[in-house]
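Justification of resources, computational component.

The compute hours requested in this renewal are based largely on the per-chain cost of generating structure records like the one below. Each record pairs the submitted sequence with a full structure-token output. That output is archived, and it is also reused by downstream analysis tasks.
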Amino acid sequence: MVKKAPDNVKEAIVGLFNKVWRTGVLPDGWKQAVVLPFAKPGKDPGKADSYRPIALTSNLCKLMEKMIVKRLMFFLESSGLMSEAQSGFRRGRSTMDALVVVSTEIAKALAMKEKMVVVYFDIDKAYDTMWREWVLIKLSALGVRGRMYNWILDFLFDRYIQVRAGTILSGRYEVVNGTPQGSVISPVLFTIMIDDVFRDVGRGMGVALYADDGALWKRGRNEKFVMRKMQEAVGVVEDWSKTWGFRMSVAKSSFMVYSRRMVGEVWFYMYGQELERVVEFKYLGLWFDERLTWSRHVEFIEQKCRKVLNLMRAVAGVDWGADRKTLLCMHQALVRSTMDYGRFIYGAAAKTVLQRLDRVH
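The structure output for this chain reads:
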């Protein structure tokens, strides 16, 4: 829209952005959002937490946010201020960085006949519970000053939302905590906030982080030593969450024990509650099992692709239905993308998927 606007409109937008940048004061309309609730699949529509809120904010504000994000991330990356474990919302990084590190460590542990314990963390209502004051404290500690700091300060405070259901619009309510939903800069600010979650876990611990999806592990042959160090590290993460106003979700966090041999009963505690031990876990889109066979992930991909292939068969026809080009687009978008995601990680198991899907055609 902005690209196709007349030159005088573009000049007016640039003038507005420069004024906002100099003064550090954002227009009130930029700090208001309309929230649309969308029901989550399989959830009770009569409960408020069964809906996923989608916030609609100013497009001009989003445009300026992109400019702010580029400058902020350039400063952080060029200064080496971001943790190497963090892969979320960083240029040149993706979920693959975290997945490769975790899967490689598991493969090494199994090859060397070691035991490896991985705790997968999940933060409860991460974006909604983040303290804005702590974000500003961390930005200041990282050396973010001047106009950048003032812009973020004004952006975070005095924000209001309205909820729209159908044609009905609610009253205005002030947002007193968390980062704005639907904004461009919120994921970056959240990443900065939790960047040091694993900083004090100690040497010898493995860590991987993508936004709020964290994995913490310890490997070795001495089972008791591994379990003791793992519990100490979990305690460090718990202390960090209390310090910075977060709470790890005990219900959604869990741990796995990777070993070629049987391992006895293992317990880990967080907030005085026992973490669940699982035999398979979906981390960043890939299903991990205790012996890294990828059998669960192969089954998951097969089921997902079968549904799409059945749909393609239903809409295909010689004299009617979707043509060859449309079917190819569907295959590339829904089947090929599913199979290619992380394919170089689960390797030979991908051949099993192809063989099973060949029988479907």
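The CA atoms of residues 254 and 275 lie 6 Å apart. The chain is about 45% helix and 20% strand.
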